[in-house]
Amino acid sequence: MAKQIAITWIKSSIGYPDTQRRTIKSLGLSKLNQTVIKEDSAQLRGQINKVQHLLSVVELD
């Protein structure tokens, strides 16, 4: 079974570039403090790295 990642949006994207706002939306997040669970992949890690200052990430077993 592939590893999963729980991604929580913890900080507002107001004042950040539009590309970062679109990255948040592409991760499936639409509201603050919302959590989504995704399968771990290199593409997902790249998106998370781009907006890591706005997110909280927890690896699940």
Structure description:
With 61 residues, the chain is α+β, with helices and mostly antiparallel strands. The chain has helices at residues 18-26, 42-50; strands spanning 4-9, 35-39, 55-60. Strands 2-1-3 form a 3-stranded antiparallel beta sheet, with no helix packed on it. 11% of the residues are buried. The model has no long low-confidence stretch (mean pLDDT 96).
Structural class: alpha+beta
- The geometry reads as globular
Q: Kindly report the oligomeric state of this protein.
A: single chain
Query: Percent helix among the residues?
Result: 25-40%
Helix count equals 2
Order of helices and strands: EHEHE
Could you describe the largest sheet, including whether it forms a barrel?
A: 3 strands, antiparallel
Radius of gyration, Cα only, in angstroms? 11 Å
State the end-to-end distance: 9 Å
Largest beta sheet: what is the strand line-up? 2-1-3
Unreliably modeled segments? none
- Mean of all residue-level pLDDT scores: 96
In short:
The radius of gyration is 11 Å and the shape is globular. It has helices at about 20-25, 40-50, and strands at about 5-10, 35-40, 55-60. It is an alpha+beta fold and about 60 residues long.
Keywords:
single chain; 61 residues; alpha+beta; 30% helix; globular
Write the layout of secondary structure elements.
Elements: E1 4-9, H1 18-26, E2 35-39, H2 42-50, E3 55-60
Antiparallel strand pairs: 1-2, 1-3
